[in-house]
Each structure stands twice: as C-alpha cells, then as structure tokens.
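Not sure how to ask, but would you mind making up any protein sequence you like and the tokens describing how it folds?
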Amino acid sequence: MTKPLRLALFDCDGTLVDSQYAIVAAMNTAFVGLGLPMPNPAAVRRVVGLPLVRAVAMLLPDDPGRLHAAVADKYRLAFADARNRGVNEEPLFPGMREALEALEDAGLLLGVATGKSRRGLVATLDAHGLLDRFCTLQTSDTGPGKPHPDMVFRALAETGADASGTVVIGDTSFDMLMAGSARTGAVGVAWGYHEVEELTGAGAQRICLTTDQVPGAVLELLA
C-alpha cells in the first residue's frame, strides 16, 4: 500500500526570502513616479502577500481603482528593472535551505503559494538554486490570490496530495487564513512581516521562531 503524499506549501516573501527592502523600494518608485508621496514602509510590509492591485488599494483606500492599477504597473516595472540591474536584494533566510532539505529527507513534497508573479517567483527561486526543489508553484497571476484558498486547491490538484496531508507555512495572517479555508495545517513563522499574535489569531497551529523549527512543526502537524 502506497503512503499518502504529504506537501509542505511555503509562502515566499517573508518566509523563504527577506524581500522587504526590494518591495519597499519598488513601491516607493511607483508612488513617486505618479506624483504620490512615498508610502510608510511598515504599511507596505503589512500588505506583502496580497495580489498587487489589492495591496496598492489598501495603501491608497481613498483613491480610484484606475490609480491602483497604474501604481501596480509602475511597481512591476520598477521591480523588474531593479532585478535586471542586479540591485534587488532578496536573501534566503538563514537556515531555510537546511529546513527544506530536512522536509525532503522526511519524504515531503515542497511547493510555493505566493502573491508574487510567476515570473518573479521563478527568478527568485532560480537565483538561490531552489527552483527544482519545488514541484508546484502557485501565484496569484491566474486566481484570486490570498487569503482565498484557490492556490492551495491548485497545489493539491497538481501534486495529488490532499488537505489533511498538507501544511501551509507562512509569515502573514493571509497565509494562515488561506490554510484555514483550505482545511490544511498552518505553521506561522515569526521572522516575517506580521506579528505572532496576528498569526495565531488567524489560525496558526504552530509558531516557529527560527527556521530550524520548521521541519519539526510541519511533521508534528502531519503526524
């Protein structure tokens, strides 16, 4: 009898890589390019993980949708330009590579569900030599984005895992809400962009303070 498939589904920004400086810089460029005052960096970090236009709408709640779309377009151009010039800093969090290896050694499949574009996600993972580690890459390019569970459902369909054998690992309440809606396990990480209290309030079943705690937390939930 074959063992059921098990899947660890990671967020990217704030969970795998620390992309806050690149994100804030691109958002500043987009705002200034349209004659807007630069947003508060803390406010930008709070919307990381949401689909881009929705994130901009949260930063500019009193402005029309057409401006949100224009800012999003400027952001994409600014982020791509910075990447092409080699000035984007998206370092892998210390110990994350080893955590991924430990989960693979335990027989788990690895996947990503992120608010990044697919192009951006592929570039980020490839830069760290991790692209081949993940068997499913889910982005908000083709769906409603977090906290809607669509990305999880697509990951399950691609891998053949089921919700009971899947754990979402992320740094924001959006990740935890997505996991809850999809009825998967939910592990929050404390080194990202939302506070631990928000993660637990949104449904995190385990909190990891360091990357080396991730494998144990995931395996404990799946047990």
Observations:
- Residues 20-84 form a domain with the DNA polymerase; domain 1 fold (CATH 1.10.150).
